[in-house]
C-alpha cells in the first residue's frame, strides 16, 4: 500500500470540498453536489456556500432554492436537513432507502412511542404512506404543523383502541405542542423524505414550509444508474481515504447498509496507508491525492457544520483531542479557523442589537493571521447584511 500523509489529505480535501480557491457562480451546483450542505442549524448551508462561492449573495441562494428550484432541501444523511442539487435527488435520497432487515436512518428513537401505542414500525409507516399523497395538494407552514396535520390524517386509519393514546401528549418534549402521534410522524418523515414524498418549501417568516416533492418540483424524483454507487463515490471523493465504517458514521446508517452501499464501488477503489492503517480511495482519485494542487486560499473561517468538518478521521485536521471536544460538540458547534486545511482556532458570532459581536480564539502560532481573519469576518458580516460591532481575539 502506498503511504499518504495528513498534509496530502488536507490539500486533497480542500480541493474536493471546493475550498482551495474561490469558485465562480457557474460552479454552485458542483459545490453543493459534492457531498451536500447540512442546514442544521438553519443558515448552515448558506454559510457553507458563501465559503466556496463568495459572490453568491443570500438573495441568490434564495432564488436557487425557492424560485429556480435547482437546489432542494429535505432530510437526508444522518436524518439532517440537507441542501443539494435537485437533479441529484437519487444519490441524496433514494440511495438511503434500506433493504431487507436494515433499519431506517434516524428512526431508532421512535420505539418509545411505538411501545406505548403497541404498534410495529411497519404498521405505523404503512399508515403514514397511505395519507402522504395528500401532500401533493398541501403546503404546511412549520414543522409542528406538519407533524400534527399528518397525525390527524392518520388518526381515522388507526384501530379504535389506539386513537386516545395517539392523542396523548408527546413523551419526547414539548407535550403542549406535540402529541404521541405527532412524535411518531416526526421520526417517520425521514423515510418519507428518502422516498421523495416530502420536501422543504419556502420559508414563511421564521418558519419553514413543507410540501410534496412532486408539488414542489413538478415531477417525481428522477435518476439513472445505481444511486447507492453515486453516493459512495461522492463520499470517497470528498472524504477519502476512508473506510466502510467511516462511511456508515457519515450517513448515520447501520453497518449492514453502509457495507452494502460501499460494496457497489468495490471495483473502483484501492487501499492506501495512513499512519500504518488501511484506508481506501477511488482509484481515479489516486493522482489527485498524491499530487494535490497547491491551494490558493490559506485561511478559512468555516461555519460549525461545514461539510469539510463532517469527516470521521478528525485527527487529520486537528490532532489535539482536547481541542477536538471544543470543535465537535453535541450541540452548537463553534466555527473553525483553518490554516492550510488544519484547524488552528475557533470562532463564534452573536447578534447584539442590529450587529454582530465576533469572538475568535486562536491557538499556537496564529497571532500573525489576525488581519486576514479580520478581513474574513468583515466579509461574513457583509454577507449576512449586518454590521460588525466588534471582534475580540482570545488565545
Automatic annotation (TrEMBL):
This is Winged helix DNA-binding domain-containing protein. GO terms for molecular function: DNA binding. It comes from the Bacteria. Pfam families: AlkZ-like. Keywords: DNA-binding.
